Amino acid sequence: MLSAFANTLKIPELRRRVFFTLGLVFICRLVTSVPVPGVDAVALERVIADIESQTGGGFLSWVDLFSGGALRNCAVGALGIMPYISASIILQLMTAIVPALERLAREGDSGRQKLTQYTRYLTLVICLVQGLTLAMNLENPAMLGITRDIVIHKGWWFRLMTILSLTTGTMLLMWLGEQMTERGIGNGISMIITVNIVSRLPQALYAAGTMFKPVDGVAQFSPFYLVFLLLMVFLVTAGTIALTQSQRRIPIHTTKRVVGRKVYGGQNTYMPLRVNYSGVMPIIFASAMLVFPTAILRRFDFTRPLGEALNMGEPLYLLVYGAMILFFSYFWVATQFNPLQIADDLKRNGGYVPGIRPGRPTAEFLDKTMTRITLVGAVFLTVIAVIPTVMAKQFGVPWLVSSFLGGTSLLIIVGVALDTMRQVESHLLMRHYDGFLKKGRLRSRR
Fold first, then answer.
1. CA–CA separation, 91 vs 116, rounded Å?
2. How far apart (Å, rounded) are the C-alpha atoms in residues 78 and 167?
3. 374 CB contacts (<8 Å, ≥6 apart)?
4. Domains in the chain, ordered, with CATH?
5. Pairing of strands 262-264, 351-352
6. Shortest CA distance to 307 belongs to which of 296, 320, 319?
7. What ranges make up the beta strands (E) of 198-307?
8. Sequential pLDDT tens for the chain (446 residues)
9. What whole-number distance in Å separates Cα of residue 26 and Cα of residue 281?
10. Cα first-last separation, the chain
């Protein structure tokens, strides 16, 4: 594997792509460090630290993790790339519902370019809304349950400056991600999120080290906790890799066709159905859907007990959170996986599943198979998602440490790392270099 990394520098095109990606990553980290004018950075950092000290973290802590610490600094990249992700998810869901968008998706490159442009416009709208919301929350910290003031000079001038700065930062990150995808290595948007998450790893390691330092001569955690923590890291990481790579292979046979003097078809191949077809989307949906109802319930006296019961780490929260992940796993598959279209495409191209009649029987078989493997993937995804909260609630592990033991962050890191290594390996194999594995090749999540 080390020789494969060394060989990446021997190929001019691959070397140029790698260094181009590293340069854009450096610029993305600069965006998360330039502060927005008018905010007391020291007070905001203390607020985020207080929230992180709570059991289970908090929504602001979760957002700060994905922005790479930009929210803690109130930087121009505080919104991160999440508005673009939200816009992409909304457009994908609307494509399965709105016939006009579905026709655009089938028009090839021209249709995809129009959908990309719509995604950018929607990203701009989401940035304006989220920027105004964040500015108002910073002006009125009591809305977040915070007593200390964060903004130095309040008013519409601060709001307009904050909205303009945050929107510009997000649009710049979006453009950098697109350039990284086109001229660099890996998916640019996913790479930015991964870099932001990994940037918190040194702080997590430091927090993990302080867990075992004695305080007043008494150790906080025994050495058995260290062994248990290392074992958990290994098992959860291995399980996440297995979940990301697992697939059910449906055998596909194609009939022979004679066109002129050439014979087409007559091959045996397979259709890969991923166990975790929805990826990390159910966790993102479930987290976002639980935040706003909980905040509304805590505003009224007669619903405040229910809102407190839905705090991160509470048993009711874990139950509802797990149920929503299961629901959104099937919801994403229902909107993105179309067995009727796949069956029609197979029938049109002369392909069939052995033992299954073409047409509707094939669609029913694919739907039944996808339903079964989605259940396995959704249950496994739920277990990985709740591990950080359980570790923080039951075992007292700091949230900054437990957030790397599962959940969204680990899934994104593993998935992006595998995809990036697969792209690098394809460049190496095309030029007759050894890949990362001596036997076999890395499989794509797609």
1. 9
2. 10
3. 275, 277, 278, 329, 330, 333
4. 12-199 (1.10.3370.10)
5. unpaired
6. 296
7. 214-215, 218-219, 247-254, 257-259, 262-264, 268-274
8. 566 667 777 788 888 888 999 999 999 888 888 888 877 777 777 776 666 555 445 556 666 666 777 777 778 888 888 888 888 888 877 887 888 888 887 777 788 888 889 999 999 999 998 888 888 877 776 655 556 677 777 788 888 988 998 899 999 999 998 899 888 888 888 888 888 888 888 888 887 888 777 766 666 777 788 888 888 888 888 888 888 888 889 998 877 666 666 665 567 788 889 888 888 878 877 877 777 677 677 777 777 788 778 777 788 888 988 898 899 889 888 878 888 888 888 888 888 888 888 888 999 999 999 999 999 989 988 988 888 888 877 777 777 787 777 667 788 888 888 888 888 877 777 776 666 655 555 554 44
9. 27
10. 23
Give just the sign of the alpha carbon dihedral 152, 156, 161, 167.
Answer: positive
Q: Are 352 and 358 in contact (CB under 8 A)?
A: yes
Distances (CA, A) of 224 to 37, 219, 227, 228: 47, 12, 5, 6
The tokens of 119 are what?
A: 């995604």
54: which DSSP letter? S
Helix (H), strand (E), coil (C) string for 131-183 = HHHHHHHHHCHHHHCCCCCCECCCCHHHHHHHHHHHHHHHHHHHHHHHHHHHH
Place of tokens 């948007």: 189
82 touches 68 (CB < 8 A): no
105 class by beta-carbon count within 10 Å (0-12 exposed, 13-18 middle, 19+ buried): middle
